[in-house]
Amino acid sequence: YKLAKEFHLDISLFERMVNSDVPYYALGEQHRMRPEISSLITPAIYPNLIDHISVINRPHIRGVTKDIFFINHTNFETEVEEISSKSNDHEASFLIMFARHLILQDYRPDQITILTTYSGQMFKLRSLQKQYSNLNGISIQVVDNYQGEENDIILLSLVRSNENGKVGFLKTENRICVALSRARNGLYIMGNMENLYNSSNLWKEIKQKLIKQDSYGNELTLKCEVHRGSITKVSKCEDFKSISEGGCSILCNDLMKCGHYCSSVCHVYDREHTTFITCQNPCNRACENNHPCEKQCATDCGDCMVPMLKTLPCGHQAELPCHRDSKNFKCIEKVEITLEKCGHKTIKKCYEKNPKCTTKCTNRLQCGHACNIDCHMDDDPTHEKFICLKPCSKLNINCSQDHKCKKKCYEKCSNCAMKVDKLLECGHLKKSVKCSADIKNIQCSKHFPCNRKLKCGHKCQKMCYEDCQCNVIVTKTHPECGHTSKIECQINPERNFICLKKCTRTMGCGHKCRDSCGNECDPKKCKELIFKEKTLACGHSKMWVYCCDADKDFDVSSKYVLDKCNEPCLKLLLCGDMCSGTCGKCKQGRLHVPCEEMCNKINPCNHTCNYPCKEACPPCEKKCPYSCTHSKCPLPCSAPCVLCQEPCVWKCKHFKCTKVCSDDCNRPPCYEPCLKKLKCKHNCIGFCGETCPPLCRVCDEAEVTNILFGHEDEPNARHVIILFVYLEDCKHTVESRGLEQWINQNNEEIVQKQCPRCKMPILKTLRFKSHVKSVQKDICKIESKLLNGRDPFTVDQKKATLEQSVKKLNRKFDEVEQMSARFVVVKKLWFHRSDRLLQRMRRITLSNETTINLDSWTSATKLAESFFSYKLRIQFITDSDAKDVVIDHFIWLMSAIVNHADRLSKQQTADINLEMARGFRLVGLAEMKSNPDFKLAVTNQTPTSSASPDTVVSLVADVEALLTASRPYHQDADNEVQRLTDRIRSIIKSLVAVTHAERKMIHAAMSVNFNTGRRAQGHWLKCANGHIYCVTECGGPMQKARCPECKVEIGGVNHRYVEGTSVATEMDGATNVAWSAANNMNNYVFN
Fold it and tell me: What's 30-244's CATH class?
């Protein structure tokens, strides 16, 4: 409503076009409604509408006196708040009963439609419809949804009826037109005409026409189709009760086929009284014995059940139903007879042929019990199959206390399960055990040591309840090999599964066995290398093979023998060192092993670098030696020391440092002698405020005057003038004047001064602490420069970039098997190494970040990414042999990159880059060999002479030789590969008249004439001489023609090809002609 009022969406597109002066044609003649109905909208809505002759003289609606009628009422509407709509209970109940009345007039439900102007009324009508099963199928719709539809009979509920006279959109001409023009034969409207009359002039005209036709009133007149003069006026739903069967209130009283008169109220339907209306009078038929039927007339009489006394064939009499044949009745009269088999007398029913003896059997069974069933001389008379169900009279098996068996007699007795207490062999009492249990097999539950002496002489170390066995570890000698092993005493030494020592035997091949002693020696598994005099592809004259492969013949260029070449590589690497690898390990110089020459350079921290190769020494990872009197540095040498913030402890009675420990001291060294006495009561030979030297000038004269700097044996050394310093790091006592000169010399050199006696760095002696601090600060500056400004921000940035690259590669390695399942080896290796890297990066801190070579890993990820840039090209290579070569190369190369990612040297990076270039050339060669144009060129090329070298096959062989050579790949080789590749492409272009791409274009252009378009296959054919042509539409030929090239017969008739026809696979990839049994089978899917 809101959309209609505010946005005018109630105006149809057709009306908008008419309002916009679009040319149109109005309806001039209608073929739907009878004239009485069309007069309501003519000329009020359609001024010039005329009726077609087909709508005149249509049959009247049965059961009603009028074909069109307006039932007026003043019952008010109700508000349906849930959906903001309206309903009228009076109209709904009346129209439902009226619809039922029409159904009883033999109208089908699909001939009747109930229309209403409000959805609330529609839901009300549908709920009432469910109460009457014969109304199923009647359509109940709102007027707006029924536009464009029609039906034979329309019942229209207008709903609106209120004190205010509001009719809503019932005054809208469009809706009135739709509501009044849906019926073909009958239209019955129900509403409050007083409200409608006052709402618009259109309703005034409609009322006048209804009154003129005598089709307006407060009551609808119904007529009986049986009793023509009987009519019923209805204005509410209760008025239909008197004519509930659709006729009138008069009795039917028609003569039925049975001879009775119908006693039902008048009914229009089932006038033949065969389906719904049946005779309810008593039946007047009788059976052959003149017994009257007691059922209703319409019901089937069935069999006569009156009892009669009848004589049976056996002579006895029995009371049977009238219809029952005495010949088929079983006589149940009881008679006494003597049985032949057992001689017993018994009572049986007369009809029984083989009665059973009811005398009890008195025979004794094998178990000793008496038989308790009836005589059975005809069934198992000797009781062989008899099952005795009496309780067993035996004792339980293995019972020690006379417990009787509780099973049935026929069941097998079991071990006694009664719970008793038993005394075990160990002397302990075991409670609640099975009576049948053997005390030897019962484990004692007491937690006491066994302590029984075993045969071996050892005491049993098990618990009392455990089986005795000696678990003492002793040394035993294996009788076969002579090796000794420490095993449990109970175990017998056997070489084949106990001896794990290295085997010392010599195999039949002459080599020592490398396996464990417990395994059998097998010369066929010998992995000792032996050499043969044979020149390899790498140029060396010794071919090394495994002993087990000595009898095999290997190609000198095979990977097997080249990888085992033991000749030293000796190539000068980019780092300046000689390669320490072998020819095989370095892949004939294609990828060198990491340099293993120790660096041995002295770091600023005074530690020797033990890292292999001096190309790029890593930061020193040894523990920092610097310490003070308060604490020691916990970081590695390469990390800047954390400064000590404790107060400086260097003080004496003459001077005192007031700064923190890490700052330069603001006091000079004190040169006053120490006044303390040694244990020997002599004067200290040290300085004031410093640690006293442990040596005495008198008691240790020889050691004190031992010449180091030349001042120790001067005469004044015996007096207090010459003093000494105690070095706390190495515990040596050194003459002070010479030591100070030693400390102050070569001050330009940034290195911690060392003890002149033992060369240990002087770090803890307070007298020289300012010098130590100064040197340590310089060392930290040098280390920071060596780390290339390794600040946290730069390192974190590198780590973040590397982590992102690794995770990106993880996703790519997840899909690497799409290229080939063989890449699973590289995939597992990558995830093993990358997972460890990510874990280390998560737990690493700035202090020990140097344990990861971020630059090396970054280089490795870039190399891996360059490989994945060729993923799709490798994946779509179709030549299997060429693809295997590519995959073999990249599996080896990617494995090397991942294995050496922690430490990729410049030499290895250069080698890998060259091998990457070789690999990408191999990809290009494989793609060329997979190209259909290449295969066609090989087929088409005919060498002009046997000496002509420029054939496609020979040129490809030259390229393969360059790319698969065992020597290192270099720029000259790459240039030659490029030249040969260009030459091959030019030859292919000259030999292939139509390229693969051109064939695809031709197929696309012609496929518009094929039944299934471009997806069609098998339409391209070859004549007997190989010339290509096509058959359009379904692909099956219907006529013959001549090949324009060779004039042989082509095509065929009735979808049958001429002899010699073959499929042109190169055009669309088809393997069968379009019209063939093999191709047709592709249209079906088989499980």
Answer: alpha beta
